[in-house]
Write a structure and sequence with these properties.
The structure holds 2 protein chains of 2 kinds. Chain A is of the alpha/beta class. Helix content of chain A is 31%, strand content 23%. Chain A contains 12 helices and 16 strands. In chain A, the strands form 3 sheets. An 8-stranded parallel beta sheet of chain A has the order 2-1-4-10-9-6-7-8, with helices on both faces. A 6-stranded mixed beta sheet of chain A has the order 11-12-13-14-15-16, with helices on both faces. In chain A, strands 3-5 form a two-stranded parallel sheet. In chain A, helix 7 packs parallel to helix 8. The longest helix of chain A has 19 residues. In chain B, the strands form 8 sheets. Chain B has a 6-stranded mixed beta sheet with strand order 3-2-1-4-11-12, sandwiched between helices.
Chain lengths: 453, 585
């Protein structure tokens, strides 16, 4: 009679698993009720929740303030999101709290719907995202710990454009996104020269990968570029946005990553937190990739995780792809190395009071076109505040124009006064005929909306 | 008349019940019997008790006999079984090396996926080699388990088929998919392993019972109590004997149900059985006994065996009280009876005697040596850290009453804390739909039901701390046997219909087949099927069946819905055969 050993995780892992079986965008849509059904079955059959040290938690609902810290919802939160979004964001916050409070060593939120395509200003749903659950999580963390340095490594096949935009001018949040090249896939962005604003240069790093990239290419980028960058940046928290659509069987993308590749990548990144983003091969990828990631995060052996239809011969990387990835990585390595020595004005032009960006944002899920002008205050002492002028048009709809002032937590007093003055001026005079005017004051944790005008 | 016999660790109790009205309402206790359990000869204890009861009745009047025994548990805990060979078909996933718990283990290639599709077949050569290895070791017991066998038992069945074809001399074989319709490969494996392990001993027991009853010309239905508070006919218990493991706590909970109004009044209540060594905590939610989520634990390992919720706290009336590093420690060991009854160390029973709480209890009256109790407690006090236990001393002298109170308070605090933890963990159990998350779960007991030696003394004190009403379960000494006697048969059927893959599974009935041309189902029809099959398998067309779980999901290919996956679990809930049940039965 052999003693039955109860398997014990090396890292205490908190799992928030919320498949939201009674919610969907619509029944035929990839974001439908059964997206995580087979994953649940696989996780249960593998007995992962019985492993000592792996503990499941219930999510909570994100509050209005939680959402407002990251997103400005037009006209308000209720109009652009549902309970499912609040739960998805709340689960991410809970996962972070579990780690910060030391209840667990690591946490993984396997939740839907995703959030990384939601920009700061939200007129509707894009890329299946309404509010940015991971940005909400980070701002909830920083309410308690304002000086924390955080690194996102988004390994979803799509460029994490929303998360990038929200933290574009934030030097404390390093946003790294690995994704299928934007020339070949939604959202069509995430190129190597997108490196962050003048106050946060090289705090945004994009690694576009050619279609057909395999485990080999992915892990090469991780080992040769991402790990050394993390070593230099020394984040207090590493967050893996673990989208799973790089998988060879994903219906929406053209990548060739396997469950082993995902598990190994997570192992190398050693993240404190992981959160599901995209990934729609719900039968042939998600069950196995999630088992792999859970085991990797728990510090357990994941080498036996394999899809039933996995064939190594079919997943060999083209030499041309390897070369292209090498070139991309080399270019990025150079930028990272020289980041503190670069002449910012060569990149951003003459920097006086404000730096201005024009954005064209398309909301595929809701059919909305947005143009936005963003001005960030250039300040030697702090990251500065943001002024956003946004106009959204639906196909059948008159346009709606809004104005917003965003004050990050770590602004200096002068910028803080200036930003407030700007907001007061805007909503008392409303020269631009905005429908709504918003203030996002992260310093005092106050969120105000004026209108409709 | 009905007979219930509960074989406990220390005592075997029997009770003879007469149903005292024509429509089956109510019962009365006609005779009771109690003997010391002979661990290595449970049959003898059962027959001793049975014969006492039969003396008070006519044999033809006995309509039903129910046995609750520790047989299965004893075999497992004492590792008193012959070697078991394990055939594992895990496929990829979690590394299975920690699951090689058999005395001989065969890891086979082959894999069923979560849709029940056979992705890879077995390799005959590999299988034969493995079986030869097991045979060569002289192993007669086998457990065969594959992942997702509840969705496709094909690979497990293939192994069995080969064994029969080649005439292998294996006597006891368990197939994972026959033991539960639930998911959980390691749980299924452990369940199958233990099921096989206990088969020989169990078979001997069943034969001995049949023989004994024959000798007494008892031609009545005989049942065995299961861990889920239900019963299974003796002639069917060998299908899954593991279901009868740990039926003791179930008997206690069913006994509480029988002896109090908790079911009729649909109360949410905590049931406590305060024994000598442990206190068992059970739960009623709106009158129904609660279940262990997923399955019970055996030897610290989770299984798929369905069981009533029961948590055993190592704290009882005879727990050894000691002082370690100046701090008071109660239990977990029991060294013997209370000092007042000649035991070697002081126990909570001694404290209760000193406090005059149990002087009226016939059990203790006259036999307790109060002086011994006092002396044992005083002897302890010397080692206590005076800063923490200051209230026990008055002017430098030990205040024995205060000290005894302290001990009882500490014991009660442990019980209260455990109860609160149980409720919190049940309320925080993860849910997977938005509606359930928003609804939340609130389990607010209003009532405390206590049985056991010190019950009448401790019940009011506990109830006060918890803010519940309290009731002491009457006739607690035979409550277990009464619970067993009146427990009705329970059954669970899992029906899974995958119209996209065109497959139908009635798992516990062993039916796995393709849908016929034109055969289609919606969720309601699957529920009907599950209920019909539950009644059929229980051999009782009038049984009250409820749907305990249901889910339905679309299967999409491209952007079209090509089918539905529906899974339903129907059950006959544990309950009593002889009680007014309001609108049911």
């Amino acid at each position: 009679m052999r003693r039955i050993e109860r398997l014990k995780a090396k890292n205490r892992l908190g799992l928030i698993f919320f498949p939201a079986f009674d919610w969907e965008i619509d029944p035929g849509h990839p974001e439908r009720q059964e997206r995580l059904l087979y994953t649940r079955d696989q996780v249960f059959e593998e007995g992962l929740l019985d492993i000592e040290g792996i503990v499941e938690y219930k999510p909570e609902l994100a509050s209005k303030d939680d959402v407002s810290r990251a997103n400005i919802c037009v006209p308000d939160i209720e109009s652009v999101s549902t309970v499912s979004h609040l739960i998805s964001a709340g689960a991410a916050i809970k996962a972070a709290e579990l780690v910060l409070e030391g209840k667990v060593d690591k946490a993984f939120a396997i939740v839907r719907p995703p959030g990384h395509h939601a920009f700061r200003v939200v007129h509707g749903a894009r890329g299946f995202c309404n509010i940015n659950n991971e940005a909400i999580m980070v701002e909830a963390i920083r309410k308690k710990y304002p000086d924390l340095k955080i690194a996102f490594v988004d390994t979803d096949a799509h460029h994490a454009d929303g998360t990038q935009e929200i933290f574009y001018h934030d030097p404390n949040v390093l946003c790294i996104s690995l994704h299928q090249d934007g020339r070949t896939l939604y959202p069509g962005t995430g190129f190597i020269h997108e490196l962050g604003g003048p106050g946060a240069f090289a705090r945004t790093l994009n690694i576009p990968l050619p279609p057909g990239t395999t485990d080999e290419g992915l892990l090469y980028a991780v080992k040769e570029f991402i790990l050394p960058v993390l070593e230099d940046f020394k984040p207090d928290l590493v967050i893996n946005s673990a989208g799973q659509d790089n998988h060879y069987s994903d219906p929406l993308t053209n990548m060739r990553v396997s469950a082993q590749g995902y598990a190994r990548m997570n192992d190398l990144l050693d993240p404190d937190l992981a959160i599901l983003q995209g990934g729609y091969s719900i039968e042939t990828a998600l069950p196995y990739v999630n088992v792999g990631i859970i085991l990797a995060m728990a510090g357990l052996d994941y080498t036996c995780v394999r899809e039933p239809d996995y064939k190594a011969e079919k997943l060999q990387q083209d030499r041309a792809i390897s070369l292209e990835i090498q070139r991309t990585v080399e270019w990025l390595q150079k930028v990272w190395e020289e980041r503190d020595r670069i002449d910012l004005e060569k990149i951003f032009g003459k920097l006086d009071k404000f730096y201005r960006r024009e954005k064209d944002i398309y909301y595929d899920t809701d059919g909305i076109s947005e143009t936005q002008e963003e001005k960030v205050r250039i300040c030697p002492d702090c990251p500065g505040y943001l002024l956003l002028d946004s106009t959204a048009r639906r196909a059948y709809y008159r346009q709606r124009r809004i104005y917003a002032v965003t004050i990050p937590r770590l602004v200096c007093d002068d910028c803080y006064q200036e930003a407030w003055a700007e907001f007061e001026k805007a909503h008392t005079s409303n020269k631009g005929n905005y429908a709504y005017i918003y203030l996002q004051d992260l310093k005092k944790d106050k969120y105000i909306s004026k209108g409709p005008f | 008349m009905i007979i219930g016999i509960d074989v406990g660790g220390t005592h075997t109790d029997g009770v003879l019940l007469g149903i005292n009205s024509p429509n089956g309402e109510g019962y009365e206790i006609l005779a009771t019997s109690k003997v010391r359990t002979q661990k290595d000869n449970l049959m003898k204890s059962i027959l001793e008790v049975l014969d006492v009861l039969l003396a008070a009745a006519q044999v033809p009047d006995i309509k039903r006999i129910v046995l609750s025994t520790t047989l299965a548990a004893n075999v497992i805990v004492e590792e008193n079984y012959d070697p078991v060979g394990l055939v594992l078909i895990p496929g990829p996933g979690l590394n299975p090396e920690h699951l090689l718990i058999g005395d001989e283990n065969i890891l086979l290639s082959g894999y069923i996926n979560h849709r029940g599709i056979e992705v890879r077949d077995l390799e005959q050569e590999e299988l034969l080699k493995g079986l030869e290895r097991i045979k060569a070791r002289g192993i007669k017991n086998l457990a065969i388990v594959s992942k997702f066998s509840t969705r496709n038992p094909g690979l497990e069945a293939e192994v069995l088929q080969l064994i029969r074809e080649k005439d292998y001399p294996f006597e006891n074989i368990s197939l994972g998919h026959q033991l539960s319709g639930r998911l959980g490969f390691s749980r299924r494996l452990v369940t199958a392993y233990f099921n096989t392990a206990i088969m020989s001993v169990y078979r001997d027991f069943v034969q001995a019972v049949e023989k004994a009853l024959e000798e007494r010309e008892l031609d009545t239905g005989v049942f065995v109590l299961k861990c889920d508070g239900g019963t299974v006919p003796l002639d069917r218990v060998m299908e899954a004997p593991i279901e009868t493991v740990n039926s003791g706590p179930a008997a206690s909970i069913m006994g509480t149900m029988a002896m109090t109004g908790v079911y009729q009044n649909k109360e949410t209540a905590i049931a406590l059985d305060i024994g000598g060594t442990t206190t068992d905590i059970g739960l009623f939610i709106k009158g129904e006994p609660a279940f262990m989520p997923e399955g019970i634990e055996l030897n610290g390992f989770p299984t798929l065996v369905r069981g009533l919720y029961s948590l055993s706290l190592p704290l009882g009336g005879d727990s050894k009280i000691a002082v370690k590093d100046g701090k008071l420690k109660i239990g977990p060991e029991r060294d013997g009876p209370a000092a007042a009854f000649g035991g070697p160390s002081p126990t909570p029973t001694d404290a209760l005697l000193v406090l005059d709480y149990i002087q009226d209890d016939p059990d203790y009256e006259g036999r307790a040596d109060l002086q011994a109790a006092r002396e044992a407690l005083v002897a302890l006090a010397g080692d206590l850290d005076p800063t923490e236990y200051g209230r026990c001393w008055q002017d430098g002298k030990l205040d024995l009453t205060e000290f005894a109170s302290f001990i009882i308070d500490k014991m009660l605090a442990s019980i209260v804390e455990t109860i609160q933890e149980i409720l919190a963990s049940l309320e925080n159990k993860p849910v997977y739909t938005i509606s359930e998350l928003l609804a939340g779960v609130e389990i607010r007991p209003q009532l405390l039901l206590t049985m056991g030696g010190p019950a009448s003394a401790l019940s009011p004190l506990l109830a006060e701390k918890l803010g519940y009403r309290e009731e002491v379960v009457p006739y607690a000494k035979v409550a277990n046997a009464v619970g067993a006697a009146l427990a009705r048969p329970t059954l669970q059927t899992t029906v899974r219909v995958d119209t996209a893959a065109s497959y139908l599974h009635i798992v516990e009935a062993g039916i796995h087949r393709q849908l016929k041309a034109g055969e289609d189902y919606d969720l309601e029809e699957v529920e009907e099927l599950a209920m019909a099959w539950t009644r059929k398998r229980a051999d009782d067309e009038t049984a009250v069946v409820e749907i305990s779980e249901r889910e339905s999901f679309n299967v999409i290919r491209g952007f079209r819905t090509i089918g539905k996956i529906m899974e339903v679990r129907a059950q006959i809930k544990p309950g009593l055969i002889s009680r007014p049940e309001g609108s049911e039965n």
